[in-house]
Write a structure and sequence with these properties.
- The chain is α+β, with helices and mostly antiparallel strands.
- The protein has four domains: 92 residues, Uridine Diphospho-n-acetylenolpyruvylglucosamine Reductase, domain 2 (2-Layer Sandwich), CATH 3.30.43.10; 117 residues, Uridine Diphospho-n-acetylenolpyruvylglucosamine Reductase, domain 3, CATH 3.30.465.10; 120 residues, 2-Layer Sandwich (Alpha-Beta Plaits); 89 residues, Alpha-Beta Plaits (2-Layer Sandwich), CATH 3.30.70.
- The chain contains 14 helices and 19 strands.
- Strands 12, 13, 14, 15, 16, 17, 18 and 19 form an eight-stranded antiparallel beta sheet that branches. Strands 5-6-10-8-9 form a five-stranded antiparallel beta sheet. The protein has a four-stranded mixed beta sheet with strand order 1-2-4-3.
- A hairpin with a 4-residue loop joins strand 5 and strand 6.
- Helix 1 packs antiparallel against helix 3, helix 7 crosses helix 9 and helix 8 packs across helix 10.
- The two termini are 16 Å apart.
Length: 482
Amino acid sequence: MMTAPTRENIDALKAIVGEKGLLEPNGSDLAVYETCVRYGAGKAAFVVRPASSTETSKVLAYCVGQDISLVPQSGNSGLVGASTPDTSGHQGVLSFDRLTGTAENDKIIFDEENRSVTVGAGVRLSDLNAFLAPKGYVFPIDLGADPRIGGMIATNTGGARFLRYGDVRQNTLGVKVVLADEAGTELDFMSGLRKDNTGIDWKHLFIGTTGVLGVVTEAILNVERLPQQSAAALLVPRDEAAVLKLLLEMEQRCDTNLTAFEGMSSDAMAAAFDHVPSLRNPFPGGELPGYVLLVELSRTWAKRESEQSLDELLETVLAEIWEDEEAPLENAFIGRPEEMWSLRHTLSEGVKHAGKLVAFDVSFRRGDLMRFRAFMAQELPKKFPDVRICDFGHVGDGGLHFNLAIAKDDTRLDDESFIPELRAWVVECVVDKYHGSFSAEHAIGRSNQGFYDLYTPEKVKELAAGLKALTSAGELGAVKLG
């Protein structure tokens, strides 16, 4: 049973983390901690900001002993309501703001021999890459937002270059975790080994599980060489059925040079151009194709004199594809990668301003993604007229940001049942008809807790509840996995 924190509780937590580590509702602006990017806001009883794994351990042990509920919060850039407190005013926020160092050092530790970096969970992705760039490396999870590392681990973030580098799970070599038990137990899985088959690989329990099994305070991450060459193009497929053929052709002809294969609908691009008029429109006459693919090639070494450049390789590959009797390609525009990525990275902000946004982060087997889009283009207008599909996503890995925009003056928005019915129908189609996932890379939050409850087998929920009881029996996190 969740207990409302008392003055004595607040003072005890302040004694653990110091004046700078504890924010109270009175006299402190907690709005930034209480408000999510999407799907509502809550009310925090306090915000506690430990500066080390040891302080985190003491905070969790105290709160478990006092039956105080905590919601771990990293960069608070998630989109499913997993990192903010509820509206009761009884939950505290466990912020990663000050978890920017490690046990050995107050800074990021780079290990070039192991091609890895040891980092505090509170370090932002942009700061990590700013640290790595002069050394010629990058943490290769490419995102439109700027989250903190702990949140990226808790949600197993993917990103636009998943096709080449994989997700956070594939790039995490070790974690340090604090459990929500009476001892605030610290677990150290920080060997940094790339191969270790001496038993259960425990770090994976805490990757992608939204922080409810334990709080990651430090991590060892794989890093990659910064690309030294890149080339990009916007491809217009012959039709939607040709998209998968284009993907397979590009993979066959470019192999590991292929870094990204992103899809963008005309309505999503239109929203981006409307929101940022300074964006360059590369299409003749400004007329947007129905669907466009952004492809990128990259190499981690400088061009050698005897070597075909990536621009030349891209031109050659596209020419070969065009020679196919049933060419899947209608048009192509090769240009500066930074300009093309600026369009891709503006889509998210653009669609937010296209109307009332109902957003889904879904995934499919690669062959089903375009089939789902075709089905929705046909069936959505029948069930929910005048709802615009402004989708974009990671075609190369089957991920889709399926965004629906509704005019803000649409009278259906006055009906409280309208959006829940729309969301339930879309997710039902994703899961039941196309056997996809209702959460591709945003994990579970309050906004999709109901879908987790509905579609997760009871035995799996029983197992999750057992793991929760064994690891962090205290009130930790905004969601329930079991």
